[in-house]
């Protein structure tokens, strides 16, 4: 069993990495922000650090709980639009970061958190905008629109 100082470090890193991702969501006006993300990431790290190796079911419990939180973040907006899916995915990713950090893989958790932030910021960093699929959507037809030859036959 790791020392209390090691466990505290893991939990602290879990809180810090999750807070950074939550801060980005807060800046973008998300329903879940820095406090929610920090709580999810820190709690995931704590549960995993303390009981994760001896009880893999604890990690399964974390993932199940996150499903409920993510489900609560997703809602139907005006015109039937579904909102909050990205935030729900980010909450799931933060729980994953917490689990990884709780297991003692601090660098892997930091790398994962960095990649999550990179994905969340694709549309806001000039160089990364080239990777945004919405930039190219006008070049492709809609999945629901039949090809031109089918429309002519009608």
Describe this structure in words.
The chain has 154 residues and is mainly α. The protein has one domain. The protein has six helices and two strands; from the N terminus they run H-H-H-E-E-H-H-H. It has helices spanning 4-27, 34-52, 56-73, 85-102, 106-120, 148-153; strands at residues 75-76, 82-83. A two-stranded antiparallel ribbon has the order 1-2. Helix 2 packs parallel to helix 4 (85-102). The longest helix has 24 residues, at 4-27. It starts with a helix and ends with a helix. The relative contact order is 0.14.
Structural class: mainly alpha
Amount of helix: 55-70%
Biggest β-sheet: count, sense, barrel? 2 strands, antiparallel
- How many runs of DSSP E, i.e. beta strands? 2
Rg for CA atoms: 19 Å
* Uncertain segments: none
How much is the average pLDDT?
Answer: 86
Termini distance? 71 Å
Beta-strand content bin: under 5%
| Neighbour order of strands in the largest sheet | 1-2
Q: Care to give the gist of this entry?
A:
The protein is mainly alpha-helical. The protein has helices at residues 4-27, 34-52, 56-73, 85-102, 106-120, 148-153; strands at residues 75-76, 82-83. The protein has six helices and two strands; from the N terminus they run H-H-H-E-E-H-H-H.
